[in-house]
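note to self: dont lose this again. the chain is below, predicted strucutre after it. 155 aa total, dont forget to put it in the shared folder this time
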Amino acid sequence: MDNIDGIINDIEREDREREEAESGRESASNNYNTGDTATEVGIPNRTVGFKDFESLDLRVARVVDVEDHTGSRKPMYKLTLSLGELGSRVVVAGIKSFYSKDELIGKRIVIVANLERKSIAGIISEGMILAAEDDAGNVSLMVPDKSIDEGSRIR
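---
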């Protein structure tokens, strides 16, 4: 009987975990960023539900114009981006200290296309570019490694 009880408990646990995952709640057994190792290397000890991640609309965009954003306190650019058939967007980005205008024109980058619009020092920003920053403060834009159409969805 102990073996059958164990099997039933396992099935019930799996059912609970599946229900929690479907409802968007994270169970302790599904928390992949737990333990001291993640915290030691600076990884936040939290997870993002799959539905939350899935709600992000990440797209490939091409930089078509770069202007200095003179109204901001920090060194920023006003970027005009093409998303192909999806049209163009204006995005304000604090990357002026890391990239020249010439480096950016024509570059394909990754943006969050469905981010809520926000006024940044008087300019409405219609998305956010994605970049990595290391401990030394170096910044690198996220770019597709192969040629791909503007507006392509990141999955």
